[in-house]
Specification:
seven-stranded mixed beta sheet, single chain, Beta-lactamase, globular, about 30% helix, alpha/beta, D-tyrosyl-trna(Tyr) Deacylase, Chain: A, five-stranded antiparallel beta sheet, 11 helices
C-alpha cells in the first residue's frame, strides 16, 4: 500500500513538472504557436495538486473565459435563487383606464429582459387598469452609474457584442436579422420587428457551399433619432440555410422606447408621448413589479452562448447588491476580489475590467483559474455552475467540437476568443469516471490556430489512467 501511495505522489509530482503532452506540443508547433505563449493547468477535482502545469502562474488575457469568474462569484454571492426586478410606477392620477400623467419604468439591471418579458409586463399594466397614457414614458436607469461614452471594443461599432450595459436593457438592445435564400432570391427579416428599422436588401443569391458567409456580405447603417436604415450588399448562398446577424442600432433607451410603443399599441393601449430619462419622481405610485428568471437559469445563457452584455450586467448587479447603487465596474471588481479573499483565494494578478472578457486588460493565471474551478466544484453552487457551461459536442459554443470522439458529451467547457487570444476552461470526465479541471490560455498573434492543441489536451485528460 505504501509503495502504491508513493508511486501516486511521484506521478503527481512528475506530472506537475512535466512538459506538455506530446500531442499538444505537436499541434502547437504545427501552427507556429510558441509554448511560452501558452499556459496550461490540469487537476483532478478530488486531488490537492495538479497533474499538469505549464506557465500556470503567468498572468494571461482569458477572453470570454473570464465569465467563469463573474458567474461563479455571482452564484455564490447572490445565490442561484436571486431574481432581478423591474418596477412600474404612475406619476399622475389614474381613473377610468386613463393615466393622467407619466408612466415610469424603473430598471434594476435584469440581463435577460426580452421583448416577451416586456409584453408580459405591459399585459399586467393593462390588468392594473391602464389603457391610455396621456403623458410621457419615463425610464429610471439610476441603479447603474451612467456609463462614459465608450468607443466599443473594436471598429465594429454596430455589432451586438459592443452594446453597453444598462439598468433597463431590452433584448440586449440588439436587432437580430435572419437571412435565407430560396428560388426567389435572398430574404432578410428582423426576428423581432421594429418599424423604426428599415431594411434595404441588395443581396444576390449565390451558388456553391456556404463557407465563410459573413465575408461575402457587407452592411451599412444610417442611424437617426427615430429610425435606422440598414443596407445589406454582397451575396448569400442557398447552402447556408438560415443564418443570423445581431446589430445594435439604437441606444438602450431608444430601443426600450420603440419596443414599448410597439407592444403597447398591439395590446390596444393608447400613447402619443415622448421618452424621458430621469430618476423616479417624488410621489410616484407603484403599480406593479415583475421578477426575472432565477440567476441559476440566467447564467446558462451567459456561459453557453458567451453573452458579453449579460456578463457585464451581472458584474454591475454584484456591485449594486454588495457595494450599493449606483453600480460601477470598479465596485463589482472589488466585490469579487473581496469574495476571493474571504474564500482564502489570493489572486494578485487578477484584473477585472467589465467581467465579460471582452477586454484587452483583463488578466488571470491558468493556475488560479484552475483553483477557482476546483473550489467551485466543491461548493454548494456546483450544480448550477457546471450546468451553465457548454457541453462538448452537444450545445453552446463547443457544439461542433470533437463530435464522435471519446470526449463527446464528457466535458463542460467555456471558450474564449478575441484577436490574439484563445482560451478554454472547465471540467473533463476521464475514461474512469474521474473529473478533472482543465485550463488552457493562449496569448499570441496565432492564438486562433491553437484549437487543435486545445482539443488534443481535452483528449489527453479524457484518457488519463
Amino acid at each position: 500500500m505504501l509503495q502504491v501511495l508513493l508511486a501516486a505522489v511521484l506521478f503527481t509530482s512528475l506530472g506537475a513538472e512535466a512538459a506538455l503532452p506530446e500531442t499538444v506540443a505537436e499541434a502547437l508547433k504545427k501552427e507556429g504557436v510558441p509554448q511560452q505563449n501558452v499556459a496550461v493547468y490540469v487537476q483532478a477535482v478530488a486531488d490537492k495538486a495538479p497533474v499538469l502545469e505549464h506557465n500556470a502562474g503567468q498572468a494571461m488575457n482569458p477572453a470570454s473565459v473570464m465569465k467563469i469568474v463573474t458567474t461563479n462569484a455571482a452564484l455564490d454571492l447572490l445565490t442561484p435563487a436571486y431574481r432581478w426586478k423591474t418596477e412600474v410606477y404612475r406619476d399622475g392620477s389614474l381613473a377610468d383606464w386613463v393615466l393622467q400623467g407619466n408612466l415610469v419604468i424603473r430598471g434594476y439591471g435584469d440581463p435577460g429582459f426580452k421583448a416577451q418579458d416586456f409584453w408580459r409586463l405591459l399585459i399586467s399594466l393593462r390588468q392594473a387598469g391602464v389603457k391610455k397614457i396621456s403623458g410621457d414614458l419615463l425610464i429610471d436607469k439610476s441603479y447603474f452609474a451612467a456609463a462614459a461614452n465608450s468607443p466599443g471594443f473594436d471598429s465594429e461599432k454596430w455589432r451586438a457584442y459592443n452594446a453597453q450595459p444598462s439598468a433597463f436593457l431590452v433584448n440586449g438592445r440588439n436587432t437580430s436579422f435572419k437571412f435565407a435564400a430560396g428560388d426567389a432570391g435572398v430574404t432578410v427579416n428582423q426576428e423581432f420587428e421594429l418599424p423604426e428599422v428599415l431594411i434595404v436588401n441588395k443581396l444576390k443569391r449565390a451558388a456553391g457551399a456556404c463557407g465563410d458567409w459573413r465575408s461575402r456580405m457587407t452592411y451599412d447603417v444610417q442611424s437617426g433619432d427615430d429610425k435606422a436604415v440598414v443596407t445589406f450588399s454582397g451575396s448569400y448562398a442557398a447552402d447556408c440555410g438560415e443564418r443570423y446577424l445581431e446589430l445594435s442600432l439604437f441606444d438602450d433607451e431608444q430601443y426600450a422606447f420603440f419596443t414599448f410603443r410597439k407592444l403597447w399599441r398591439e395590446l390596444g393601449g393608447e400613447f402619443n408621448g415622448r421618452l424621458k430619462l430621469q430618476a423616479l419622481p417624488q410621489g410616484a405610485v407603484k403599480l406593479l413589479e415583475q421578477q426575472s428568471e432565477p440567476l441559476g437559469s440566467v447564467v446558462r445563457d451567459i456561459n453557453k452562448w458567451s453573452n458579453n452584455v449579460m456578463a457585464r450586467q451581472l458584474l454591475l448587479t454584484i456591485a449594486a447588491e454588495k457595494a450599493g447603487a449606483p453600480a460601477t465596474e470598479a465596485k463589482g471588481a472589488a466585490a469579487i476580489q473581496g469574495w476571493l479573499t474571504a474564500k482564502g483565494l489570493k489572486f494578485d494578478e487578477l484584473v477585472i475590467e467589465n467581467g465579460s472578457g471582452l477586454s484587452r486588460v483583463e488578466r488571470i493565471s491558468a493556475g488560479h483559474l484552475g483553483q477557482l474551478l476546483v473550489h467551485a466544484y466543491n461548493s454548494p453552487v456546483m450544480p448550477e455552475m457546471m450546468a451553465s457551461l457548454p457541453i462538448l459536442a452537444l450545445d453552446g459554443t463547443i457544439k461542433q467540437r470533437l463530435k464522435g470522439s471519446q470526449s463527446d458529451g464528457r466535458a463542460h467547457l467555456k471558450t474564449g476568443s478575441i484577436n490574439g487570444v484563445s482560451a478554454i476552461a472547465g471540467y473533463v470526465l476521464d475514461a474512469n469516471g474521474h473529473r478533472h479541471v482543465l485550463v488552457m490560455l493562449v496569448n499570441h498573434a496565432r492564438a486562433g490556430a491553437s484549437r487543435n492543441a486545445q482539443d488534443a489536451l481535452i483528449e489527453w485528460v479524457q484518457q488519463q489512467p
